[in-house]
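Bench notes, afternoon.
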Amino acid sequence: MAGITAAMVKELRDITGAGMMDCKTALKETDGNVEAAVDWLRKKGLSKAAKKAGRTAAEGLVAVGLEADAKGEVGVLVEVNSETDFVARNDIFQKMVSDIAQTAISVNGDLAKLRTEPFPGAGKSVDEHIAEMVGKIGENMSLRRAEGIRVEEGVVASYIHGQVTEGAGKIGVLVGLKSSGDKAVLKALGKQVAMHVAAARPLSARVEDLDPTVVEREKNVLAEQARASGKPEGIIDKMVEGRLRKFYEESVLLEQVFVIDGETKVGKVIENAAKDAGAPVELVAFSRLELGEGVEKKDDED
């Protein structure tokens, strides 16, 4: 059995909100597997939901880049990390991140290609320039993530939450809308949907786009919860089906209730926008990057 450390217990408590002893028991029962321990707690009714751990060691910025060309519009997001927020507020660091975002446009947000792209005016690649800046600023920095959306007909809208400087902040969102309609209307709609995405954290755009392993995991948890309530097997399937619909409404963008009006599903909001835009509107894709998401601090950094 894997050794259960205090840090593992704390992580599980941060994720689930369950008690310390329950977290210890869950970790022992699952041989130290945190993800499995989350499910164990949920099945026992000791955790209301599996939340993402919010422990973010990485500072830095998420920046957006947008460009329209003869082939349509492209939007990119990049996450560049630093060790401290102090450096993230440094003008030199901010300019570097902005330049990386603009460079990412040429490779449609492809991270592997971006690393080797020439950094503007530096005579070296993006990765090489970052390494040079580490030596100058005296703090570790890294290009962690990059994503992009291209729309041939329509718009790519963006939103930065927790903006630190123009076009960069703590959370970046892109929304691609396909339509031949009025671009000003589409941009306004796209920004509102992007604001929703920043707040609601959808897992996918559509039900069919959800990771099958995520859906299967949720089904298993819901089934165990239903069995624990003593319901007969014939009723359990119907209970799971109903609860799964609720999971979709919470996790899928087009099924979520629009945070701006609090009553209409996002899918219907986009559909209704056709009247003002003068043409049907379709969601192409969305992208959301949150600074430091999924990165944990070392114990001595707490």
